[in-house]
Design a protein that fits this description.
The chain is an alpha/beta fold. 36% of the residues lie in helices and 20% in strands. Helix 2 packs across helix 3 and helix 4 runs antiparallel to helix 5. The two termini are 27 Å apart.
Length: 219
């Protein structure tokens, strides 16, 4: 169903029962990337699956920044009355989760972040080149956002006060040094590199995260 947040219509699906778990998709995707994961977790969690602005069924606008994604997600959490939900964010969704956890202590009960980067340089050179080529050909604001952001400072990461699991594939487009930087600067964070996995192979239309999240969130 639709929810009006920050002057736009944000599509959000809920399913399951149990403590709330917010699933945040990445750039150019929508909530359906979590279809198989949601089916595997619906007996343990009440799953909240939004489409971010300019994605899926949500409102298309001329403006898109990482700060917008964070502000929309915070407004949705408050509108739905979610009290300290778990959150799992993939790629841009992970960036959103990190941004919110740093700015709003106690907002989440625990957090899993998959394939997030702290800055454009946190992506490997071939990925940055691919984004630049696509941006030149399409003038996509989704590409422009990845070229100019995010800008997550280490001091922000050090403000995060919830149990955090940092995940990446061994073949991820995110540079390993950036993944390690995220985990090293969040107090008490756990780091897990998944052998053989790419940026999204263990997330998109996959159940691979189900036992990992169930174990980490201890539900």
């Amino acid at each position: 169903m639709y929810h009006t947040v920050n002057g736009l219509a944000l599509w959000c699906r809920t399913q399951g029962s149990g403590p709330p778990l917010l699933l945040l998709h990445g750039n150019g995707e929508d909530h359906t990337i979590f279809d198989r994961l949601a089916a595997a977790l619906a007996h343990r969690f009440t799953l909240v699956l939004p489409d971010s602005r300019c994605h899926g069924k949500s409102t298309r606008l001329s403006r898109l920044t990482y700060d917008d994604l964070a502000a929309d997600t915070l407004a949705l959490i408050r509108q739905l009355g979610l009290v300290r939900p778990f959150v799992c964010g993939f790629s841009d969704g992970g960036i959103t989760a990190l941004t919110l956890a740093a700015a709003h202590p106690g907002l989440f009960r625990a957090m899993a972040v998959c394939g997030a980067n702290t800055c454009p340089g946190g992506l490997k050179a071939p990925a940055r080149a691919g984004i630049a080529l696509h941006a030149a050909a399409t003038r996509s604001m989704l590409d422009r956002m990845m070229q100019t952001g995010p800008r997550i400072r280490l001091a922000q990461l050090r403000q995060i006060d919830v149990p955090t699991l940092v995940l990446a594939g061994s073949r991820d487009v995110v540079r390993p040094v950036d993944t390690r930087r995220i985990a090293a600067n969040i107090p008490g964070a756990q780091l897990r590199i998944l052998p053989g996995e790419t940026h999204g192979s263990y997330v998109v239309h996959s159940t691979a995260l189900a036992p990992i999240l169930t174990d980490f969130f201890n539900v």
